[in-house]
């Protein structure tokens, strides 16, 4: 899940200019000193019949990986678990489609390595096929992590435009994330705008915020890119009291946050792959309709912005008229990979 | 343009960080690794100033969780959760917790704590729990509420029972600029 965006870049494949069957970091990592790694994969399917993008730590191909998560596909919710696998599962995309993955790997030896992951499977246009928040274990306590190898089962299925970025939380000298905008409202407002962005340069944005609903009714906050209100799709997974639901559809923006009534609170995060050339995937989470000690609902959600050929230059967070109360805060961070 | 719309001017901040994430967005304010002789650890904060914290806990204890209190308060927490417990998916809500159950035994937890001035505090967290071999026991997602709008001045971590197991690590980052 996307709870933080910390770190400096230790590996960046760049957008692949030609399809590949595997990508290795080389022996540039030092897991015992680097803290933990954030692995971000935007996968473009490069071959017919292809599907998963997988990875191995220290190229370990033994049956030393396991996972457990919750899969949401359309309205279906289920268990996503396995043991004794020979790889960690990242994303999935069919030929010419997109997949998206973020994983946080606690890398230090001395105990098994755990990865907190979020997988978005096969995005085609505005259709987001499936999301899986999950955990992965690498059953190795002894070895320092020095490299990660990403690969696919079908030759050349890491298609043109695929990009892999790895961040480390320690042992770096140059920051990658910068806070490019911060809005703390002094009075109720209907929207918050971030302009002058350059998605092609920044590649990734992280939006984080909390709001108090000042509107006398339900208030859905949307995030819109470049004033577009038509080209969004989503898949979500939600828990409300004892009820579990999931859904897939299209909408007029990224569904950022929600409060059911006036004076309720909400918290939200979104990680946005912003560079043009392919659809722009987003993954996020929401804490919704909070009042006192009652958290009405939480959810994990992924979106597709199905606009491929325009630089992302503006983001607008908006909701009901003057529905963002004073004190509402929205922060925007950009990755700005070096070079 | 709606009345009250605020235009954000991008602020280009380029920081040079030496060491652990001391850069222009978040500052590491606690990096605690247990030796086995501690039952708790705390860090002084100003929630109104910081507004947001990122917290990672790696708990190596085989039986006991790591808990969190905001400003030592033991009375005013609630949660909504979504869990996969040994393959069973479920959801549940509680409105009267005395603590934030941050990290179960043998788990990794990441959380984002939002603490703006005058607001109820909210947290979003994910927990991964390991059993043995290649078996993951549980995967959980929580949203927490702390029903207090006043500033809290400490983040207080403790073992649910006895001392932390040696090697248990708690790292806290605050939203601060250099």
From the structure above, extract its key features.
heterodimer, A: 339 residues, 8-stranded antiparallel sheet, B: 178 residues, mainly beta, 4-stranded antiparallel sheet, 54% strand
Q: What does this protein look like?
A:
The complex is a heterodimer of chains A (339) and B (178). Chain A is mainly β. Chain A has one helix and 24 strands. Chain A has one helix at 199-202, and strands spanning 8-12, 22-24, 36-44, 52-57, 65-73, 76-85, 88-92, 98-106, 113-124, 127-138, 148-152, 163-168, 178-184, 191-194, 204-212, 219-225, 232-240, 243-251, 254-259, 265-273, 280-291, 294-305, 315-318, 329-334. In chain A, a hairpin with a 6-residue loop joins strand 8 and strand 9 (113-124). Chain B is built from one helix and 13 strands, in the order E-E-E-H-E-E-E-E-E-E-E-E-E-E. Chain B has one helix spanning 47-50, and strands at residues 6-8, 26-33, 40-44, 52-59, 66-70, 77-85, 88-97, 100-103, 107-114, 121-132, 135-146, 154-159, 169-175. The chains are: A mainly beta (339), B mainly beta (178). Chains A and B meet through strand 5, strand 6, strand 9, strand 10 and strand 13 of A and strand 1, strand 4, strand 6, strand 7 and strand 9 of B.
